[in-house]
């Protein structure tokens, strides 16, 4: 898709909810490290999936409410397209998208593509 549209810039954003602080210091540290490792693995898989394209690729990990993070980033960076994964969408595509997907689709400043 990036090749076909001759994209000049691709932004990969991995957003995750904040880790609850009530876990105790050692559990909190382990949970944060696990979440960071998982997020970095997702970034690497996304970069590999994009492959070689004549575009700048920027990757970023962000902590915060997922829907807000994606929408704010798309507005701030004036994105042309948001592509989100359908991961976690269960029965009937999460009741036809899931709450995050529904909000992103309805409030996004640009088209949204949901991939499985």
> N-to-C terminal Cα separation, in Å?
15 Å
* Arithmetic mean of pLDDT: 77
Question: Outline, from the CA principal axes?
Answer: globular
Biggest pleated-sheet summary: 2 strands, parallel
**Content of β-strand:** 15-25%
What percent of residues adopt helix (DSSP H or I)?
40-55%
Using only CA atoms, what is the Rg? 15 Å
The unreliable regions are none
Q: How would you summarize this macromolecular structure in one to three sentences?
A:
46% of the residues lie in helices and 21% in strands. The protein is α/β, with parallel strands linked by helices.
Strands, helices and their partners?
Layout: E1 9-16, H1 25-50, E2 56-63, H2 66-76, E3 82-85, H3 91-97, H4 99-107, E4 112-115
Parallel strand pairs: 1-2, 3-4
Helix pairs in contact: 2-4
Notable traits:
single chain, 116 residues, alpha/beta, two-stranded parallel sheet, 4 strands, 46% helix, globular
How would you characterize the overall build of this protein?
The protein has 116 residues and is α/β, with parallel strands linked by helices. Helix content is 46%, strand content 21%. The chain has four helices and four strands; from the N terminus they run βαβαβααβ. The protein is globular and about 50 Å long. The two termini are 15 Å apart.
């Amino acid at each position: 898709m990036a090749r076909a549209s001759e994209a000049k810039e691709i932004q990969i954003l991995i957003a995750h909810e904040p880790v609850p602080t009530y876990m105790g210091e050692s559990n909190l540290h382990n949970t944060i490290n696990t979440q960071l490792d998982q997020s970095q693995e997702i970034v690497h898989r996304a970069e590999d999936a994009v492959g070689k394209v004549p575009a700048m690729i920027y990757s970023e990990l962000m902590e915060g409410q997922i829907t807000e993070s994606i929408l704010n980033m798309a507005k701030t960076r004036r994105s042309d397209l948001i592509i989100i994964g359908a991961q976690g969408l269960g029965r009937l595509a999460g009741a036809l998208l899931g709450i995050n997907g529904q909000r992103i689709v309805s409030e996004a400043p640009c088209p949204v593509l949901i991939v499985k």
